[in-house]
Write a structure and sequence with these properties.
This protein is mainly alpha-helical and 342 residues long. The chain is built from 16 helices and 3 strands. Helices cover 58% and strands 5% of the residues.
Length: 342
């Protein structure tokens, strides 16, 4: 097992990357999103990187002699290999990037190995403080974090680039023949104010009890699902209901679409016209990409895990949660405000 793990290290490439950084310290600035201390599995290489980075941050030059002074216990072979690589380097950003990507790949593989080994041990040991549900959720979180280790490269943008991107939003709205660059809520006044529901928006619908918050929110999600069905890129809406069952919500939607009072549906008090209207409404809406999860007592971690899965499987573009106060915090908090903030 140890041999397999050691195969996920490459001291030679670590030395080459450090040699590049010593000879061309500007690479620390141009590749700062991708250079991480965790990439260096050899403890001596890690020490050299930290000294090198500290000097660069202080805008000081660094040499092999400097490294010897700051890390007196460093092995002579390491310095010899480093000096040799520095002499051989022919500067190429593409080659450096390739070496860096190899180190990232090895790091991710090492972390994956450790995560799976630890979770395998936890799952086969019953003398553990965590139950199997906690183990699975923690595993899912760690795997998700690991899969997002490589950060997106956000480039410095000039004003021309920004305004060009802004024009694309206008163009997108124009192609939709009208008004909205975002997802339509189905409520014209609201869409006029917001330009539709926009990506990354967090919208909290507040009001006193029995004011119709759930009815309004459900209608918005339902209208968004209808909007998605007419788009080229088929997307979905999901509603997480921590209070009402999915069937209750479905009954509300059917009643509204069929223009039949919901109490009549609940009692089955339907005449021939009502039955026809109900059948027509069902045929019109039952294939919409509108999903429901009525699991009670969800924690923040469970909610996050569910949404990651739904996003991957159903291309979720709109999430409705009813309602915020019923989500359980991960741990005890001093007050309700802290819980809701989490």
């Amino acid at each position: 097992m140890q041999k397999n793990y050691d195969n996920l290290k490459d001291n030679d490439i670590e030395i080459i990357v450090i040699a590049y950084l010593l000879k061309h310290p500007e690479l620390l600035d141009t590749h700062f999103e991708h250079i991480n201390p965790d990439l260096f599995s050899n403890i001596e290489n890690l020490k050299i990187y930290k000294v090198l980075n500290d000097f660069h941050q202080s805008q000081k030059n660094i040499t092999i002699e400097t490294i010897k002074n700051y890390i007196p216990d460093i092995q002579s072979n390491t310095l010899k290999d480093l000096s040799s690589q520095i002499d051989q380097i022919v500067f190429s950003k593409d080659i450096f990037k390739s070496y860096l990507e190899t180190l990232q790949e090895l790091f991710i593989r090492r972390e994956l190995f450790k995560i799976t080994q630890n979770k395998n041990s936890e799952s086969t040991t019953f003398n553990t403080s965590s139950n199997i549900k906690d183990i699975v959720l923690d595993l899912e979180k760690k795997l998700f974090d690991l899969s997002n280790f490589k950060k997106d490269n956000y480039e410095f943008k000039d004003f021309a680039t920004v305004t060009k991107s802004s024009l694309k939003i206008v163009e997108k709205a124009f192609k939709k023949k009208g008004k909205y660059s975002g997802i339509v809520s189905g409520f014209e006044d609201l869409d006029n104010m917001l330009g539709g529901l926009q990506n990354s928006d967090l919208i909290i619908l507040a009001g006193r009890p029995s004011m119709g918050k759930t009815a309004l929110a459900t209608n918005i999600a339902f209208n968004a699902a209808k909007y998605f069905s007419n788009e080229e890129e088929k997307a979905s809406a999901v509603m997480l209901s921590l209070e009402m069952s999915a069937e209750q919500i479905g009954l509300r939607i059917l009643a509204e679409q069929a223009k039949i009072p919901s109490d009549k549906l609940r009692k089955g008090d339907l005449n021939e016209k009502d039955s026809l209207e109900l059948s027509n409404a069902y045929q019109e809406i039952h294939k919409l990409n509108f999903f429901f999860d009525d699991s009670p007592n969800l924690t923040v971690s469970e909610l996050r895990s569910k949404l990651r899965r739904y996003k991957n499987n159903y291309n979720i573009k709109l999430v409705l949660i009813d309602y915020l106060q019923l989500i359980k915090p991960e741990g005890s908090r001093d007050n309700r405000v802290s819980e809701l903030s989490e």
